[in-house]
Amino acid sequence: MSESNAPAISSPVEYIQHHLTNWSVGVEHGEQVKIVDFSVFHVDVFLFSVLLAGLLAFFAWKIGKNLNPDKPTGAQNVAETIVEFVNQQVKDIFPNADGLIGPLAITIFMWVLLMNSMDFLPVDLLPALFGGVASLFGADPHHVYLKVVPTTNLDTTFGLALSVFALIIFYNIKHKGVWGYIKQFLFHPFGPYLMPVNIVMTAIEEVAKPVSLGLRLFGNMFAGELLFLLIALLAFSVWAMPAQIALGTLWAIFHMLVVPLQAFIFMLLTIVYLGLASQSAEDH
Amino acid sequence: MNVTATLIGQMIVFSILVWFVKSVLWEPMLKVLEDRKGRIADGLAAAEKGKHEEELARKHALDELKKAKAEAAEIVAQGQKRAAEIVDEAKNAAIEEAGRVKVAAQADIEQEVSRARETLRTQVSALAVAGAEKILGKEIDAKAHAKALDELAAQI
Fold first, then answer.
1. A37 pairs with which residues across the strands?
2. Which chain positions lie within coiled-coil regions (chain B) (predicted)?
């Protein structure tokens, strides 16, 4: 952390802003990115999420290739525990799930867990390293940005949430038919006489699903990251170091709860939403 | 805090990851777990069956043992009975033999007695003649007194 102490001490706002800025293409330095701008691409978010996806895929492949039916060892035991745990959740919540729900749920759980876990790395470690490496190639380290936690970015959380939303619509149409799905908008929840209200209510209900999924994860992880940054700012003086260490430890311990919990909630709600989508119209 | 083109990238990565995890890990592992569950159930059923069979075998063995014991007891009883019979037979035979020996001995004794008497009888006349000769101091003709001698001998 010592490499970043100097800017942290001199200008905390700049320190935090620097940490909250993505490494992006399609945007000039200092330029504000609009809320929705598809000409911008966050390289760091994509890089880390793909690296973690690759890690996950590698272990999945490695374990899946060496499955030992009678004497499970080491990694296989861990994987079996996770698979059985997720499978049990799916069975409990969504009894007649098809073959996609389980893999979807475990992928969400593990991938989000891995991405969230990037929060446990010291906040300055990778950005400072990256800045140092970039400065070797003549870049100004103050203009080199790196956000290491992909889930502190709306692209990731909404990428997942919108994928789930697409599946919600798909499962609705699959199980209710197009007309059945439309009927749900027209007649639910107040019956045919309040049709306009129904449409608004059901639309809000449906849209709230991906929005809440995406925002919940984003909000939790962003807040966690921000708090780590604020705690890192305590390095302004040697006298504040014990406080920094104590708070950092406390927050890290608390975050150990938040990280898997958020991954679990995302997975659980995905199963719940898809389970609801798969109920036929008569079940309502 | 904004939505950018990264969103589409993340969705694609996510879809590929789901497909990948599904095909390399989820499905093979569920199959393995399912198979194992089946095998464990089979094993438990077999163990249950084995236990039941063991129970049966134990009961059977117990029955056999009981039967064998009863048979052995019967054999022993028969043996004892037979032994008693043999002892009785032997005793009876011995008594019979003893009786026979006694009878024979008595017959022998009588025979001996009569023989001794006979011998005495033959010698008594000679003794009487010899005694009389000593008393009288002269020879006596035994033939002349044969009748008196015979009477004497008959008294023995």
1. B4
2. 51-82
For A65, the closest chain B residue by CA position comes to: B24
Query: pLDDT tier at A6 (50, 70, 90 boundaries)?
Result: very low
Q: Which of A45, A60, A154 has the CB atom closest to B21's CB atom?
A: A60
In a domain, B16, yes or no: yes
Q: Is A153 on the interface with B (CB under 8 A)?
A: yes
- In chain B, what residues touch A153 (CB-CB under 8 Å)? 6
Average pLDDT of the segment spanning A84-101: 90
Q: Do B6 and A155 touch (CB under 8 A)?
A: yes
The predicted structure's pLDDT at residue A122: 87
Pair of tokens at residue A100: 């996609």
Chain A residue with CA closest to B5: the answer is: A38
The reported pLDDT for the residue numbered B26 is 92
Give the best residue of A55, A89, A156 to mutate against chain B (max B CB count within 10 A).
A156
- Is-contact B124 B152, C-beta < 8 A? yes
Domain count, chain B: 1
Average pLDDT on A209-231 reads: 93
Could you tell me if residue B1 is inside a domain? no
Q: Identify the CA nearest to A213 among candidates A175, A280, A168, A148.
A: A168
Residue at B85 is within a domain: yes
